[in-house]
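User: Earlier you gave me the apo prediction for this protein. Now I'd like the version with pyridoxal-5'-phosphate bound, so I can compare the two side by side. Same sequence as before, with the ligand SMILES added.
Assistant: Got it. Here's the input I'm using:
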Amino acid sequence: MNCLRRCWAEIDLCAIEYNIGQYRKYLKDGTELLCVVKANCYGHGDSLVIPHLEKLGVKWFAVSNLVEAEHLRSLGVKGEIIILGYTPEENADDLVKYNIIQACTEYPYAVKLNENAAAGKVRIHAAIDTGMTRIGLHGDTASDADDIQKMMQLENLSVEGMFTHYAVADSRDEDCVAYTRAQTDKILAVDDELRRRGVSLPCVHFLNSAGGIHCPTSRSSLARLGIILYGLYPDPSDPLPFEPKPAMELKAIISQVKYIEKGTSVSYGRTFTADKRIKLATVTAGYADGFPRALSNKGEVIIKGIRCPIVGRICMDQFMCDVSAVDGVQTGDVATLFGREITADDIAQLTGTIGYEIVCGITARVPRIEARE
Ligand SMILES: *Cc1c(COP(=O)(O)O)cnc(C)c1O
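And here is the structure of the complex with pyridoxal-5'-phosphate:
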């Protein structure tokens, strides 16, 4: 079956290429690009995006779990893959088999991985909790260095690096800038302490999308590019030195167009009633596609270049919008739900969330197809 023309996401690989090109300009010598491709490339579709990233010469990828990592290998990825999240210790040998680097949260977990690995050495990067308070070693400099040296004693582990994750690198607030600097200082102190003891880890990394731009440093081996890769903002209220190009456009077909009279109510709960005769279109996408129900009576979609207000509640698979301002609209026309003009960040603002959640929330039933100009 070819791609069902109901609701689909068009993925613009040129936009991704542009975003990488712009981002790379801010990285110092010695910092290599890592693309964060967890959650199916933030909802963009890894079978579409990953081959393109490899073609662009990307050598490092990060995912959230082993299933995602194995899927990347099944797509033919030859580069390094790091799992930033949790892997049960009983899967230690899968990490070996697929040559995946695992984030290591604490010494007891390292011991468990070590005990479960029979097929070879599990490659790890020690996580250091410098202020995100999520995962990682969180002692003082000396005890974190001790823990890493203890991990290095475990014979079925190969400790190849350490990393930390920023909590507020996306904000230019004075407090946040100071907090981010303190996080950087903490991981660098562990690195310095290890060097003083004669240990130098090949890979020490701490930049995320925002950090790579706002926190220039030559000491992060990798910059872990996530949200900006996909053309959205780490924090839309904090400008970037370039405008990222959104890579996903969500589109759906109009299945019906009709006039409704003044006094007619629309959709579940009758939350909208026409105050005059209007032209109404039914669009074939709903919250089961990941188009947020919170946009009911709030959002707009674009039809023939014109913004059309969503009226009534968004249903599971359909919603209605007022197309009175659009001439000649008919069944089979395409509505753009978000993309370049109305961005996922705009939708997020309307629904009280972040652009990340909007794109990650596009569900599996929505086909991802390559955009053609
Ligand atoms: C998700 C994630 C990133 C990417 O964050 P962005 O804000 O999308 O750049 C980087 N590092 C870690 C550890 C992450 O979990």
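For your comparison, keep in mind: The pocket of pyridoxal-5'-phosphate is lined by residues 36, 84, 165, 208-209, 224, 226-227, 234 (CB under 6 Å).
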